[in-house]
Amino acid sequence: MTTDVVRRIAGHRERLEAALQRALPPHDHYPARLHEAMRYACEGGKRLRPLLVYLAGDVLGLDSPRLDSAACAVELIHVYSLVHDDLPAMDDDDLRRGRPTTHKAYDEATAILVGDALQALAFQLLAGDASPGLSAEQRVRMIAILAEAAGSRGMVGGQAVDLDSEHRHLTLAELEALHIHKTGALIRACLRLACAAADRLGDAEREALDRYGKCIGLAFQIQDDVLDVEGNSATLGKTAGKDTASGKSTYPAILGLPTARARADELFAQARAALQVFGARAAPLLDFADHIRTRDR
Ligand code: GRG
Fold first, then answer.
1. Measured from the CB, is residue 183 less than 6 Å from ligand 1?
2. Does the pLDDT value for residue 238 go beyond 80?
3. Is the CB–ligand 1 distance for residue 225 below 6 Å?
4. CATH of the domain at 69
5. 276 lies in which domain range?
6. Closest ligand 1 atom to the C-alpha of 87?
7. Cα angle 256, 170, 172; round to 5
């Protein structure tokens, strides 16, 4: 990554952490245990989705404050999904972001409520965003984008199919469809949220960002499968090798590791190619694609 993008990412991370601190209810406010658990669940994490929102904003020439609610909202939805995914009724995991999952640190009922409350907070933030220059129409559009990506036609739908497929071997096309929904929809929404905050945007630019989001989302998931095979729990901050142990259909299981890696690389290349329409302005998202491509957790 260029030093410019490293600095840019550090700045956006700092912005996001401050915005999240403002958005989350104080830990000692009624009901204190729930609020403390919400904050616990939100700590750590790579913050890739909010970074995508801000970096897409950079490419579009938007002021970052305009994107604070969208960046926070997408992270809150992501955290809620992780908290619920880790529950015994779903993936039943003890480790997340390098420490006990929320239901282990608190209890199952609290973890369910943490997810519920984080989801509600995400939409409350978008609805109440008073950033100068952001119209009510743009806020409604953002709410619709996030709701669609998070709901049964997006992430929750993908999760439902994933749970249904547990003891079945999926074809590559089935696996791809599952992940386009489960992981890809929220990642793609990050780009769409930034587009919704832009006042003027041509179809070619909107479609380019959408294509980038789609490719990055799928590549990210393939990498996740590869890291589950190659990584270790300490670096990943979650249980490694779970997919293989549970006989899950994954990209490495269907394609073999080298082909799965090659497929991810191909998608990263397609993501980069999609941004040609932006010329030199695409640099923040081009560098970010490389940043994700070389991740080890
Ligand atoms: C329970 C409604 C519901 C949905 C769950 C996203 C999801 C759907 C489950 C997570 C399962 C999983 C491990 C998916 C693989 C891709 C993924 C979302 C990884 C975690 O995202 P990172 O690596 O996590 O960005 P951090 O902790 O860095 O934010």
1. yes
2. no
3. no
4. 1.10.600.10
5. 3-292
6. 1
7. 55
